[in-house]
Amino acid sequence: xxxxxxxxxxxxxxxxxxxxxxxxxxxxxxxxxxxxxxxxxxxxxxxxxxxxxxxxxxxxxxxxxxxxxxxxxxxxxxxxxxxxxxxxxxxxxxxxxxxxxxxxxxxxxxxxxxxxxxxxxxxxxxxxxxxxxxxxxxxxxxxxxxxxxxxxxxxxxxxxxxxxxxxxxxxxxxxxxxxxxxxxxxxxxxxxxxxxxxxxxxxxxxxxxxxxxxxxxxxxxxxxxxxxxxxxxxxxxxxxxxxxxxxxxxxx
Length: 252
Known about the structure:
By secondary structure, the protein is α/β, with parallel strands linked by helices. 46% of the residues lie in helices and 17% in strands. It is built from nine helices and eight strands. The chain has helices spanning 22-38, 56-66, 82-92, 94-97, 112-124, 146-160, 179-189, 205-216, 230-251; strands at residues 11-16, 44-48, 70-75, 101-104, 134-140, 166-171, 193-198, 221-222. The strands form two sheets. It has a four-stranded parallel β-sheet, with helices on both faces. A four-stranded parallel β-sheet has the order 6-5-7-8, sandwiched between helices. Strand 7 (193-198), helix 8 (205-216) and strand 8 form a beta-alpha-beta unit. The longest helix is centred in the C-terminal third of the chain and has 22 residues, at 230-251.
């Protein structure tokens, strides 16, 4: 018996990057569990682009086998870089062969809710929000996509206006400055307290590199990843709703 009907809400397929590090999938599953609890009438599943499973085509096949006919893919990606622009659309093409109508939502970031998630992590580490004595490094994976990197720089500029002494971007790969360099630059500028906010969804190789570089450069605080936070869960649902509502309006 099919678990869905023609009138059921579209399924939500949360698509993460994936990692060989088991902590990554555990964090993604915790985020997906938040989404399920918040929207119990929506079929919510997780899939990965690489390294761990289920991969996106497998997850789509599983949904189709359950009787799902509509789904919204929510990329759990924090920028609109290569994975969001190329990998996700290519993998979602498998849905057409399964007679599954799949629409892609925007990736999670950049978005103010992710800033709120980073501030949550900073508060958990004992840092007062908007402390003008603090220099903040917004540390992300980095990309060869200049537009994606520029969007993060703009996010940092907006965050700076909330009261921090400075907010700068740094990257774990692909482009400069690297995290340690950004920490040392802020120290030379005169900040006595420097905190590194990890703009990463889930633990893995690059988040570990951010932590290592930050500590080696003498950062006072380095936060954990933002995936398993209420803000990330709310944002995933917001991206889903943004995609579902136009279709509902057209059918009204």
